[in-house]
Design brief:
The chain is of the alpha/beta class. The protein contains twelve helices and nine strands. The longest helix has 14 residues.
Amino acid sequence: MNKHYFHHQLVDLHYYIYGSGPQVMLCFHGYGMHGRQFACFEELFGKEYTLYSFDLFFHEGTKLQDDSLTHLEKGMEKSQLIGIMKDFCKSHSIQQFSILSYSIGTACAGVLIESNQFSIETVVFMAPAFLKIPKTLSYLGQPGWRNRRFRQFLYSEYAILFSLRLAKAFGYFNAESYPIIKKELGNFQLRHMFYATVTFLRKLKPDIAQLISALNHHKINVIMVYGKYDHHFPAHIGKQFEAKVNNVINLIVDRGHDMVDVELSKQIRKLI
């Protein structure tokens, strides 16, 4: 079975392996997804690359060694993520790699690159969330009374359902999307995942200037992928960033935010 664990003092990191090629790709998925999100890349990339596709923190099989509220509120430092990935690469004899990243996974990719501690050939930023991290979530993720209120709200099923009914009454949700959202937020584990992600990972934001410097200094090939109909991370958010990166390709696909599939793998394969 394609299930693997890297046991670290901070985390049991769960991941999948796709392909068996001589080159390496590390894959970081989006919020609410899992390492299997990149299974669709195996057919076209698997002969040339071995893809290590991780479950991010609080997603599916990846578990913190200490998942107490105190530890979550403390937050994860960039240096800790870098240390985990350095140890992973050492244990797998990985000297150089490329990166596939999507949505919140792009923030993890950016942190690794800006550290200047890895040999990276190509990075693909799909729906680059690191360029537009919501200020509200950064605000709520900070330790203190606001974060405690945020947790109390998410942990209360009554408060969640009441707010959803109120939002529906004011037209924020249509009849089709309301039951889907209600089902998602009615699940305590999913609400906890949201709280934990916002709180524990709040520091994993690349410094844009340092990231650009690292990309250019190491001559890393950059592919920026946007969904034409993605209202979360539209193409215009990357204009200033891309103007300062030397080796960059801009790809706009005929999709919304949900874009990772076989067709996208075909388009990206043509560029790598």
